[in-house]
Write a structure and sequence with these properties.
It contains 12 helices and 10 strands. By secondary structure, it is of the alpha+beta class.
């Protein structure tokens, strides 16, 4: 009799919090997969990236091309710092006005006639690295004084420059994800009275909160990963490669997504209406925090604790070397350009995520269904 009682009791025990969490995540994610918001986010990614990719070439700014008989800026070797003659006599240095060229396509002309490479006895090409960009110089080993030097070569945009064009949209995309998938995730349970069906179940509110948060984060991660995946393919096609720090940029983007979704859940736990939560989340990241960030330009105070300021690291991380803070005088005003520290930016975003999640769970547990 005792054995039967224990068996019946074990069959009616509520599942553990850990086992309930993936169940909540699965059903919430299924809700997103069936909603218009996820498909709208994907459509925005595809439409905006297509527009950003096609518009520059249509406006006369292609990503690659061929410079034909382009003048080369030439100066005597003794006036070009950083170049050593070595065992050869260097007469002059010519600079190619492109950061990325196809070396095999280079043809040099002297006074309109092809000036052959001649196994390196006439000239050779020297590549000077400046971070992720390159400067190509033609080192002349023969006296070309008084000659007009031109060149024909194929050029293409650098991966850093190409990817930076698109990464300015990444932050806005993450704001959209936080607005679509987080802003009304909690408050809608109270406003739509669905909490009357959900809350009586034997599940802790903290588990429900974290399960819904995980689903929102998964939906946002799908959108952000799609963006970076398309960008990687386009970069391979147009820039012939991917920047070395591309994955690090993706890492910053994921961290910003986690923090933004967490802040969205906090707002959703605080407010009473879905519309207010959506509007506040969107404008907090789009206008309010960026306005605070812009104050530092004139005040001379670097606002390291701003979430949107820290998120800019996902763009600047591609710049090699990483930009440093600088001050400029313009029209009697002092303008300050500040850049987020790479490590501090990661710490700040993590702090926002943890603090928002903790406070959001606390407010959710205290919130009552009324009416």
């Amino acid at each position: 009799m005792i054995m039967m009682t224990e068996e019946v009791k074990s069959q009616h025990d509520a599942p553990s919090d850990i086992s309930q969490l993936p169940v909540v995540w699965r059903y919430e994610l299924l809700k997103y997969l069936r909603s218009w918001r996820l498909y709208a986010s994907v459509a925005i990614v595809i439409a905006v990236m297509a527009l950003m990719y096609l518009l520059p070439p249509l406006l006369g700014e292609p990503y690659s091309g061929t410079d034909t008989q382009t003048a080369i800026w030439v100066q005597p070797a003794d006036g070009f710092s950083g170049v050593s003659d070595g065992p050869m006599t260097v007469y002059a240095i010519g600079v190619v006005n492109r950061s990325q060229i196809d070396i095999d396509s280079l043809v040099v002309y002297r006074d309109g006639a092809v000036y052959p490479f001649a196994n390196g006895t006439n000239w050779f090409l020297n590549e000077v690295e400046y971070g992720s960009a390159s400067v190509y110089t033609i080192v002349f080993l023969q006296d070309i004084t008084g000659s007009a030097i031109t060149a024909t070569y194929e050029w293409y945009i650098s991966p850093e420059s190409f990817e930076t064009l698109f990464l300015n949209f990444a932050s806005f995309l993450i704001i959209i994800c936080a607005t679509f998938f987080a802003a009304d995730a909690i408050v809608s349970e109270f406003q739509n009275r669905t909490g009357y069906l959900v809350f009586p179940n034997p599940i802790k509110r903290s588990v429900l909160f974290l399960g819904k948060f995980s689903a929102s984060l998964t939906a946002g991660l799908m959108v952000v990963t799609l963006f970076y995946g398309i960008l990687a393919v386009l970069s391979m096609i147009s820039a012939r490669g991917i920047d070395d720090d591309f994955l690090l940029s993706f890492g910053y983007a994921v961290e910003f997504l986690i923090a933004a979704v967490a802040v969205g859940y906090l707002i959703s736990s605080l407010l009473k209406g879905s519309t207010g939560a959506i509007v506040l989340t969107f404008f907090l990241f789009l206008m309010i925090l960026p306005i605070v960030d812009s104050v530092s330009m004139f005040s001379g105070v670097k606002i390291e604790g701003s979430l949107t300021f820290s998120s800019d690291a996902l763009i600047y991380i591609l710049t090699d070397p990483y930009p440093v803070d600088e001050t400029m005088q313009m029209g009697g005003f002092t303008l300050n350009s500040y850049y987020p520290d790479q490590v501090l930016a990661a710490v700040t975003m993590a702090a926002y995520a943890l603090a928002s999640l903790g406070l959001g769970i606390f407010m959710f547990n205290r919130k009552q269904l009324v009416g």
